[in-house]
Specification:
The structure is a single chain. The protein is of the alpha/beta class. It is globular, with a radius of gyration of 19 Å. The chain is about 25% helix and about 35% strand. A hairpin with a 2-residue loop joins strand 12 and strand 13. The chain has 7 helices and 13 strands. The protein folds into 2 domains: about 70 residues, GMP Synthetase, Chain A, domain 3 (2-Layer Sandwich), CATH 3.30.300.110; about 170 residues, Vaccinia Virus protein VP39 (Rossmann fold), CATH 3.40.50.150. The strands form 3 sheets. Strands 9-8-7-10-11-13-12 form a 7-stranded mixed β-sheet. About 40% of the residues are buried. The N terminus is likely disordered. Bound molecules: S-adenosylmethionine. S-adenosylmethionine binds next to helix 3 and strand 8.
């Protein structure tokens, strides 16, 4: 669970403790049994979490190329745009038209803490900017995003956090980055936080990596256990980027039964 104080909500039918609090918007994963009790659930959440002003139910998973949630208004204000604070930055976003997960804030801080001054950083799948804005406090960042709504919020977030001069925005398909950034790279650190589809872009990332540089390659992987999942990930990298080496693999989170999100650090 993300956020605080939902402990007394667990007994409500249709509520399985999966709740994300993004700014003042709570997003609850809906389960069978909630029908007819949605507004009671919304009232209980707002009573328990005083900062929450809008409650939405999420139907299904996070889907499609833009990784979006299907939302249903359950209670409070009917508004999906909010301002979320994490790691000392502020992020404006629309939880319906942009991908954002508050569960990854520690991972973002971990990556940002590894960035050294003077590095050139490329984020191929930037969303509304939670990695890029944080990293831009230390190093120049090139930030790419295909979803026009997320791109617009990223531009706004650069200004909000006073890093607009440190972030070069690239709107469109990350597959075109080798052409679009020709003359600006190569990059010392490349982020690929798009775990459902990053494999399709790994050869492009490899072509933009500086000698001694590192790619943070996020992937959803299945396996009977984590050892098997890691072995699959290593095989995939060897096939897609044979000239690079995996130097570390870590679990970011458990996605489902026998299904994990891993990040491989891959060096030139
Ligand atoms: C899992 S989200 C991660 C966003 C952000 N890094 C974060 O942590 O919030 C993946 C992002 O990649 C974007 N995306 C999907 N396909 C893309 C492509 N071909 N080129 C650039 N961005 C893409 C999606 O719109 C989405 O914002």
């Amino acid at each position: 669970m993300t956020g605080t104080g939902a402990s007394r909500l667990g007994g409500l039918p249709g509520f399985d403790s999966g709740i994300d609090v993004i700014g003042d918007v709570a997003v609850v994963k809906l389960r069978p049994g909630v029908e007819g009790r949605e507004s009671a659930l919304a009232e209980a959440i707002m009573a328990e979490m005083k900062s929450v002003k809008c409650v939405y139910g999420q139907e299904g998973g996070i889907e499609g190329e833009f990784r979006l949630r299907r939302l249903r208004h359950l209670g409070g204000e009917a508004r999906t745009t909010t301002t979320h604070k994490e790691n000392g930055i502020r992020l404006r976003l629309d939880v319906e038209t942009c991908y954002f997960s508050p569960r990854l804030s520690t991972e973002r801080l971990r990556i940002a803490s590894r960035v050294r001054e003077g590095e050139k950083v490329l984020n191929m799948f930037a969303g509304v900017g939670p990695y890029s804005v944080l990293i831009a406090k230390k190093a120049p960042v090139w930030s790419c995003e295909l979803n026009a709504a997320a791109y617009r919020f990223h531009v706004e977030n650069n200004r909000l956090n006073k890093v607009e001069r440190r972030v070069t925005m690239v709107e469109g398909d990350a597959a075109l980055l080798p052409e679009k950034t020709a003359g600006e790279g190569p990059f010392d650190r490349i982020l690929m936080p798009h775990p459902s589809q990053s494999n399709a872009f790994l050869p492009a990332a490899a072509s933009m990596l500086a000698p001694g540089g590192v790619v943070h390659y996020y992937r959803h992987v299945t396996g009977e256990d984590e050892g098997e999942a890691e072995a699959r990930l290593r095989e995939e990298v060897a096939a897609l980027a044979p000239r690079l080496s995996v130097v570390a693999v870590r679990r970011v989170r458990v996605v489902g039964p026998r299904y994990v999100e891993l990040v491989a650090d891959i060096e030139a």
